[in-house]
Amino acid sequence: MITRLLEVFFIFLPAFVGNALPVVAKNIPGIRRFSRPISPTWLGRNKTYRGLIAGVLGGMLCGIILTALVHSGFLLQWVRFDSFYRDFWNGIFFGFLLSFGALIGDMIKSFAKRRVGKKPGAMFQPWDGIDYILATIIVMLPFIFLSWVEIIFLLLIGPLLSLTCNTIAYSIGWKDCWY
């Protein structure tokens, strides 16, 4: 069971990366020109093209790295998920799909927050932390069967990773709030 949960973690790793990278991209000086909001009215000012592009490209790069690790035999010592990252194009495809799914899930939550009158950056429990992973699970349904244990694992590990990354970003001054 532990081996399977590790497989699921690595399969979904581009989603975790894609969700975290917009905060990092916000702090890279050379790409500030892409900081235009996608839709201030519908999503708020914090959802930018810069974050979307950085998240998707980062997820795709993660998929390529996972493919290289599969082909090197490094990851196959512990897990068997080579059907997802068996070649370069699969790595790009699943990296894109997972990171884009994660970012769309985050945008859907932002849209819902605007509709109920919550301000950008305000807490929106229980959706903060599970929004992106829930959307990613839905996007991946045609490609992977997940047991209830695996779904619960993702819904637990996703918010924990998100909270950890957000707390680190807050402590180094990259975010205004710890969540």
Characterise this structure.
The protein has 179 residues and is mainly alpha-helical. The model has no long low-confidence stretch (mean pLDDT 88). The chain contains 6 helices and 2 strands; from the N terminus they run H-H-E-E-H-H-H-H. Helix 3 (49-72) packs antiparallel against helix 4 (88-115). It has helices at residues 2-11, 13-25, 49-72, 88-115, 131-140, 148-171; strands spanning 37-39, 44-48. The longest helix has 28 residues, at 88-115. The two termini are 30 Å apart. It is 61% helix and 4% strand. The chain has a two-stranded antiparallel sheet with strand order 1-2.
Distance between the termini: 30 Å
SSE series? HHEEHHHH
**Average pLDDT over all residues:** 88
Residues in helix, %: 55-70%
Can you give me a brief rundown of this structure?
This protein has 179 residues and is mostly helical.
Break the fold down into its secondary structure elements and pairings:
Elements: H1 2-11, H2 13-25, E1 37-39, E2 44-48, H3 49-72, H4 88-115, H5 131-140, H6 148-171
Helix pairs in contact: 2-3, 2-4, 2-6, 3-4, 4-5, 5-6
